[in-house]
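Box 3.1. Reading complex inputs
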Amino acid sequence: MPAAADAVAAVKARWPGVTDRPSLDHPAVNVPPADLLAVLGSLQSAHGFDMLTDVCGVDWSAEANPRFTVVYHLFSTTTHDYLRIAAACADATLPEMPSATALWPAADWHEREAYDMYGIRFTGHPDLRRILMWDGYPYFPLRKDFPLAGMETELPDAEVAAETKVGTIAAPMAGGPFVASAGEINLTDAEPRAKDESWTEKRPKPGT
Amino acid sequence: MVSASTDLAYNSKIEGEVIVSRADAVINWIRSSSMWPMPMGLACCAIELMATAASRFDIARFGAEVMRFSPKQSDVMIVAGTVTYKMASPLRRIYDQMSDPKWVIAMGACASTGGMYRSYAVLQGVDRIVPVDVYVSGCPPRPEALLDALIKLQGKVKREPSAGKLLSA
């Protein structure tokens, strides 16, 4: 029996709230947020999952409940097993999750990114600031209700903004989004381009 | 064998130690012959910029080989790559720190228009925050295209009324 399955069985026996999660590749479980740190700590200390390879957020949709999920990918450097842990945030408007930084320092920047992109607050995080967007940016860009093109805000630097009178704008999509064609052999055809050039911001999409 | 005729060149025996020219021509000749770039390498275009400076394409042939990382010593900012909104402010500050006269080349689709990044995070063309003299198409442009942009910029510099600007400044 692989170590990951052992670990899953042990964790499920000890924490009844832990349930199996459909997965195409590695073993995966859902964990209630209240048990999360205890489960992660047990996997780290008792089951050899000593490496945290990723922490990411998911926004299922603006209407979904639970709306936000945090996914942890653990790896064991002794048995070379992966294990996926998912924990759903209870609150859709102010999503919160306990921080795993005390267990793995690697969680620090991953959690900052999840906070930056989804607005999930990691309680107990030593330095929860934005990591990709600038401090003071008012939106969480990977949320489903945020448009890909962006929204108008001010530039991070007030002096430059005052001198250039420029802010961030909703990027012109002009028939986009610009996407690559998967599986296309001809590089000219494969390169990212607008798939529907019948419309632009000035010329509405036909039939709408 | 080198031709003995020097009639078309400057002949100090005939004309003495004096050269007659226009101030504009002299100033613009000096400026265009040694344009020191500020390499604003922000993405993959910077790799082509490095290739342009390296031995095969050799930007030194056009007097622009002295890449200066101090804005005070550079003449032309080559914006090579995707300008994010977060990077836009440092870019503008570096441009402000460059001493006059100064020029800007927007190298590649991203610097010129935002390119394929129609995104919340990317400045849609560096000409929104700095005045651009030459745009180079391509994703990324080949080194020859950047050299062509440099030559075009030199042509533009040679047409500038530099003496008048200096006198009125």
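In summary: The mean pLDDT of chain A is 88.
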